[in-house]
UniProtKB/TrEMBL annotation:
It is found in: Cell inner membrane. Keywords: Cell inner membrane, Cell membrane, Glycosyltransferase, Membrane, Transferase, Transmembrane, Transmembrane helix. It is a multi-pass membrane protein. Signal peptide: none annotated. The chain crosses the membrane at residues 58-77, 89-108, 417-438, 468-490, 502-535, 556-575, 581-603. It comes from Gluconobacter vitians. Residues 242-436 form the Glycosyltransferase 2-like domain. This is Glucans biosynthesis glucosyltransferase H. InterPro entries: Glyco_trans_2-like, Glycosyltr_2/OpgH_subfam, Nucleotide-diphossugar_trans.
Amino acid sequence: MDVPLDAVTEFPPSADPAAAPFLPPEAPLAMKVQNLRQQPDRHGRPFRTLPTTPSFLWMRRLFVFGGALLLTGYGIYRINQVFNSLGVSALGVIILILFAILAFWIALSFTSCLGGFVSLIRRGGLGLGIHRTGPLPELKNRTAVLMPTYNEDPTRVLAGLRAIHDSILATGQIDAFDFFILSDTTNPDVWVQEERAFLEFRKATNGEKRVFYRRRHKNVDRKAGNLGDWVTRFGSAYQQMLTLDADSVMDGSLIVRITAAMEQHDGVGLIQTLPVIVGGRTLFARMQQFAGRVYGPLIAHGIAWWHGSEGNYWGHNAIIRTQAFAEQAGLPHLKGRAPFGGHILSHDFVEAALMRRGGWAIHMVPGLFGSYEESPPSLTDVAIRDRRWCQGNLQHSKILGTKGMHWVSRVHMLTGIGSYVMSPLWLLFLLFGILISLQSHFYHPEYFGSKPTLYPHWPRVDPVQAKLVFIGTMGILLAPKALAFIAMLFDRAALRGSGGVFRLAVSIVLETLIGGLIAPIAMLIQTSGVISILLGRDSGWNAQNREDGRVSLKEVAHGYWIYTVFGLLLAIAAWSVSQALFLWMTPVLLGLILAIPLAALTASRDVGLKLRRAGLLLIEEETAPPPILQLAMANDAARERAAHDPNAPPEEAFAALRQDHTLLEAHEGALPPPRKPGSPIDANLLVGLVKLREAPSLQVALERLTRQEKAAVLGNPEGIQLMERLKG
């Protein structure tokens, strides 16, 4: 499905940019819902080995999985000597099983990072003919840049999109791209703010023919449905689509290079970039962005090294072949009720798996920088987001049996499930460790039994072997950080941007210590999430908090006292068993007991900025920001100045529309078509219209209308007329 650049969209001439239609003419593309119980139609494409599959990929996978199995086997042998050296006990077997699962998890990460280290040192992580530098390739086809948004601050979202637009403009290839703001917003005030921000964006960029806005009045199937709606309405006009998130920023040259790679390789369905976290100001966000920038490339290079053409999709900052997506990525609803049934929440993994199932290659290019995102500002915000991600990943258990799926795609889903299931398993490992120590505490060994023997029966728990297992496990856990540090020494710009060798080393130690204290809190948060999902509780869908506002200590205490209490109970239990066990568990106990001050400290903007001034937790992108981030920061600064302008337009929807007739006309021109006889009746609209008719003034109407009713009347011509007639 090639769409050449000369196939430009034609619009009727308009003297007023605001009078131009919000959307281009529709170009429908069929998107069939996939049957997971049947083999897909691959249309003659190969499946096992694709044209872009790297040579000897099987050897890389053998090294990663074979090495992980060998390390796990050795660990099992050692832990068996600790607990079951002279016989098998029930608690010893349980500990052994839990250890085997947890050990394989960290061993697989370690061996993958070894591959990533080799790729980093050799400056790999590209492929598909992509080059880091040199002249930009000329694009031949049209690409849509898609910015989905859901109840986000539109000025903030469009500040990032404007930076992307201007960066592409600087490459000289802006005519190859159209920009779509795809709103699923349900807040009526935010909806009207989006329209105003869109009109301002379009006017500032002269983008009447390339910048578009669409709001779905019924946001079916959330983000996946948002993108699916665009594909079915406009997809055939674009060979590729670049998917973004509300906090995404991408460099124009990076976009041109991956778009050209897609054009040059007909069998590639998706190319995922490595988003680097930027813009962090709280201690927690700065730790996240430091870890992402220092350890992230090592991890990403590792998985790309052995994923090859069976890569994954992270939901944004990726370019997708529209035909491949429409042909293979139509998501079915899972049988049963939420949280396991219904709409697929973590749709990105599944979409990538289905495209690969259909014979399309999925690649990742971690060696190409210029892709950015933001981190939630606090542990609390991550916990809220993780609850939704946890549900989505656990849903994948119902997709693992999909027919025709590549085994690596199944590994992706198992990895996603494991990233949350490991927390309750770790908790069980700790609790059973206390039980087995308790057993040893009350068990009085008989060194010489009733039968004559030359050798004594030593106790089953061997503290020396336990110490060796602990040291080995910690070594494998911390090795990726050491490898990332060594790799940074070979990248002078990144090393200089991180403050030099000494500050980088101190920052890694600081991040490791604080992260280690936070880890048991995160373990309990994720464990509670898993339990709530197993109990049938749905996560819902809420907009993500991206602002780092101050949080009071009282609010933190209200959310984290339970972890402190659990830590104290665990400490009492460990101390009652033995002082040695208590000391052994000190890192876990400290993190839990200090949960409240840790959550408050890491959510602090002041602490984060003080560490930045001290030269700690620095990354290259903040000490020497690339042009795309300079654009984004300038746009964000202008946005904040405009927000504090005393003449700023009102945020409330009715007031905004009544004050700005240009905005009102544009809003009316974008309303959905009127209801047809026999269509479902919108109760919110009917009630909202009645309330508007009976309201004596605007203020009374605003007090009586619910948010859903207000959104319904704003989407109806009669509701707009009634709103205009209100006094006040």
